[in-house]
Prior knowledge:
By secondary structure, this protein is α+β, with helices and mostly antiparallel strands. It contains 1 helix and 7 strands, in the order αβββββββ. A 3-stranded antiparallel β-sheet has the order 1-5-6, with no helix packed on it. Strand 5 (112-115) and strand 6 form a beta hairpin. The longest helix is centred in the first third of the chain and has 33 residues, at 3-35. The radius of gyration is 29 Å and the shape is elongated. Mean pLDDT is 74; it is low at 34-42.
Amino acid sequence: MSKTTNACRPATRWRRLAFKCAIFVLALGVAFPLLAGQGPAHEAAAASSFNFNWAPAPAAPLAWTPGQVNDWDLVENIDGPTDNNGSMEAGHGADCSAPPATHHVVSLADSAFICKSHMMTAVYGGGDAYATYGAIYFAPAQLADWSQGPATVSWKVSTQRLSTRDWWQVN
Length: 171
């Protein structure tokens, strides 16, 4: 045998020994809980559902503000130091009549509202707006729990786009 072959043998032996030790430790980590009669620890999640009651059918657009607990998260933003988002005509009439009827909106407080038992959002960054950009983010303040099996997340959304900057997405 050459000296090169003999020099490589100790390194190979150490690698094999390290590999066998790693397998042994892994096997022990799996075996001990099973031998003790304990499976993997799972915290039981309480069965729950989360739903928003869109039932109000007001006679006029009803400005909506999230509740303090267990409600939806609503973030309205414009790129300026004011709550005026530019005056615009928002969907639904002043009596909540269906589009194409509209009503006048001038502030972020008016930009999320309920008409005809559904949520509407409207923000404008043009015309007399202080800023040129605005966005409204609306999401349930809950997480879907798949720890006990399948979970369902569903919603209804309008796909109407009134500008090239209108879109919705799921993150």
